Amino acid sequence: xxxxxxxxxxxxxxxxxxxxxxxxxxxxxxxxxxxxxxxxxxxxxxxxxxxxxxxxxxxxxxxxxxxxxxxxxxxxxxxxxxxxxxxxxxxxxxxxxxxxxxxxxxxxxxxxxxxxxxxxxxxxxxxxxxxxxxxxxxxxxxxxxxxxxxxxxxxxxxxxxxxxxxxxxxxxxxxxxxxxxxxxxxxxxxxxxxxxxxxxxxxxxxxxxxxxxxxxxxxxxxxxxxxxxxxxxxxxxxxxxxxxxxxxxxxxxxxxxxxxxxxxxxxxxxxxxxxxxxxxxxxxxxxxxxxxxxxxxxxxxxxxxxxxxxxxxxxxxxxxxxxxxxxxxxxxxxxxx
Length: 337
Fold this sequence. Notes:
Blueprint: H1 3-25, E1 27-32, H2 51-57, E2 58-66, E3 70-71, E4 77-79, E5 83-87, E6 93-97, E7 103-106, E8 111-115, E9 117-121, E10 131-135, E11 138-142, E12 145-147, E13 152-156, E14 161-165, E15 168-170, E16 174-179, E17 183-187, E18 190-192, E19 198-204, E20 210-216, E21 219-221, E22 225-231, E23 237-243, E24 246-248, E25 252-258, E26 264-269, E27 272-274, E28 279-284, E29 288-293, E30 296-298, E31 302-307, E32 311-314, E33 319-321, E34 325-328, E35 331-333
Parallel strand pairs: 1-2, 2-5, 3-6, 4-7, 5-8, 6-9, 7-10, 8-11, 9-12, 10-13, 11-14, 12-15, 13-16, 14-17, 15-18, 16-19, 17-20, 18-21, 19-22, 20-23, 21-24, 22-25, 23-26, 24-27, 25-28, 26-29, 27-30, 28-31, 29-32, 30-33, 31-34, 32-35
């Protein structure tokens, strides 16, 4: 064997060793703890301290476990791979918004899950939003608290699938915003906003997109609009379904609006809408259509409203009582079969 062959073999062995070491560094489960150190390998015996270190250590599709009650970031956490981030039950695993969003997801194709987290702003640090997804395949948020965010609690501005379950978003300017092709289901959650913001904002701004939300068994409260379905582009469509929800103490309740003729559909069934200053259920503008069935609409400014060419259809079985104005505009009762 000549010297050149020996060098080739040695080089191959060295490369294999490097690749093997890199592969071993990718953990299915990475761990963070209050006493951890980012120089550690992020294993259970030797946990890391902050989320960026764990994201470097974990394999795509893996898990990051937050073991103790502590903050786990010092700046925006940029998630660039598919990952599940969760705090152990009983621990307050917090991610703070400081100088921007707490968590940013901007990588195509990633699937991100957040479970049992607390997302709050760091006082005086200029935090804006809670979770921002501008690219990616899916976002799941379960048993999480997003509180006091000055901007938007959860903002998704891409054609991804969003699932929110058993989660509270409160005390911020806007609770949940879905834009430009996002599709969300929200179940057993509480979403609120400040008096000038939207609890849920489903917004079509990009041409040719269809943005959707289905909200069930949840509470929408304390916003300027509880759930706002609107389009500002003539070819951007929006669909909002709200079922079995408590809609309380908002300026407007469930509101559909089209600014440029884009199709906006609001379906409301089995909800209680109360203590709304203005319209409880409304279709506003040409291109909008609202369908209402089995709702209780009480103690509002106006119960059901068709405005500016909007179409409002009713099953005729809504309890519209004790409002300043029961119905405004043309409310068409349509047979359900």
